[in-house]
Amino acid sequence: MAQNMVAQKEDVKTDVTTPEPTHGGITYTPLVDILETEDELVVYADMPGCKPEGVDVRYENGRLDIYGKCPPRQENVEYLLNEYGVGDYYRTFTVNEAIDTSKIAATYRQGVLTVHLPKSEAVKPRRITVKAE
């Protein structure tokens, strides 16, 4: 199967989530797995700390945008050790596949966003029957 989604940011590290100064504050690039089947593309994005109502998924003109609002765990606290960065998440992809936008679905469970991007019938592989003559 071909690479049908391309990350806009080429230097994404796969070992840690990296902060970026965008959207008016610190945002993190969520780590993502992408699976392709004959019927759909499935995106799994690690976004711990978000609430489902704070997750925004948009698909328009072949572009998938994922944004997650992540509130601070505690306010006005001074940590002895603070290794876990808290901030919003943002990631965008270009999708090089015809998607049936009316059937796109997303779920958020235990810190993982799952986005289902069903392929349109026109691009699904089909078997051609060979007739004997």
Q: Can you summarize this structure?
A:
With 133 residues, the chain is an all-beta fold. The protein has strands spanning 5-7, 19-22, 25-28, 32-36, 40-46, 55-60, 63-68, 88-95, 105-109, 112-118.
Beta-strand percentage range: 35-45%
Gyration radius from CA atoms, angstroms: 18 Å
Helix-strand sequence:
EEEEEEEEEE
Number of strands: 10
Count of helical stretches: 0
Question: Helical content, roughly?
Answer: under 10%
Overall structural domain count: 1
- Distance from N terminus to C terminus (CA atoms, Å) equals 33 Å
At the first level of CATH, the class is: Mainly Beta
Describe what you observe in this structure.
This protein is mainly beta and 133 residues long. It has a single domain (15-122), classed as Immunoglobulin-like (Sandwich), CATH 2.60.40. The chain has no helices and 10 strands. Strand 2 and strand 3 form a beta hairpin. The model is unreliable at 7-16 (pLDDT under 50).
